[in-house]
Amino acid sequence: MSEPPIEAAGAVVWREHAGEVQVLVIHRDRYGDWSLPKGKLDAGEHEVTAAVREVHEETGVAVRLGPLLTRLEYHPQRTPRVSKRVAYWCARPLDGTGVAADAYQPNHEVDAVRWIGLSEVGATLTYPRDAAVVGRFRTLVRTRAHLGAPLVVLRHGAATPRKAWDGPDRTRPLTDDGRAQAERVAALLGAYAVHRVLTSDAERCIATVRPYAAVAGVVVDENAQWSEDGAERAGVHAGVQSLLVDTAPTVLCTHRPVLPWVLEELGRPGHRLAPGEAMVTHRREGAVVGTESVTP
């Protein structure tokens, strides 16, 4: 029986420096190779949080994820019987400079990190598969899509059924499963460095984003505009249009009946989200430049 694939995640970390786009690469003395930062998921870890964690551990640079670039599956030469699946995002330093890489202290896994110009990085990387990932990133750069800012559309977590709740519907709480989903949502939002939190004024939506807001130290903006009772199609469309031209990394938490209006304005009519599931939209200058569904 074949072994299950090794799940891993990484990123093409980029910055603009001296008038050019540069990419961060790592050198591993044990293998004598130059590669993109990546690593295996910890038990129970989501791939987006793994990508951010691995980049920080291997380069010292804290990043925010941008659009998903690709997913690869291959058989490493050192373990040919076990395949590895790696998801790659483009990512940029939270401080915009990535200067932390200059102070990186070599260790037994990574002995050097280096910023290299986008035009030269393909020739530096040891593995053609890494060069191909950078090629996908280069395509985004040509259209400026790598500059997209995240808008996370989130359906609230699992809530107490209506028939089991005696109070007003807007006060209906999350179940134990819903609260666990909210904790996982917090980790996901951190990977995209969300610092604007919008939500329906219903308790089940507020509770879904509350753990993240507490950790990130941001204010939760509660608005009946996104609620089941207060939402109107024209108002939702106008609100989403406003969010499309904004540049703040944002999460919007709302309800199943409201989501179709949100998603059709984002160009994803008919798309469905399960309780606690999110769709990450990357937008630039009012246009959607990438989307991905994420189950926390």
Chain-wise SSE layout:
Blueprint: E1 6-17, E2 20-28, E3 33-35, E4 38-40, H1 47-59, E5 63-74, E6 84-93, E7 112-117, H2 118-124, H3 128-143, E8 149-155, H4 176-191, E9 196-199, H5 203-216, E10 220-222, H6 233-245, E11 250-254, H7 259-265, E12 278-284, E13 287-294
Parallel strand pairs: 1-6, 8-11, 9-10, 9-11
Antiparallel strand pairs: 1-2, 1-4, 2-3, 2-7, 5-6, 8-12, 12-13
The CATH class of the largest domain is identified as: Alpha Beta
| Low confidence ranges | none
Number of helices: 7
What proportion strand?
25-35%
Our Rg estimate from Cα atoms comes to 20 Å
CATH superfamily of the largest domain: Phosphoglycerate mutase-like
Instruction: Tell me about the largest β-sheet.
Output: 7 strands, mixed
Task: Assign the CATH topology of the largest domain.
Answer: Rossmann fold
The SS-based structural class is alpha/beta
CATH architecture of the largest domain: 3-Layer(aba) Sandwich
Helices and strands, in order, run as EEEEHEEEHHEHEHEHEHEE
Q: State mean pLDDT (0 to 100 scale).
A: 95
Helix content: 25-40%
| Count of domain modules | 2
Tell me, briefly, the overall form: globular
- Based on DSSP secondary structure assignment, what is the total number of beta strands? 13
Distance between the termini: 30 Å
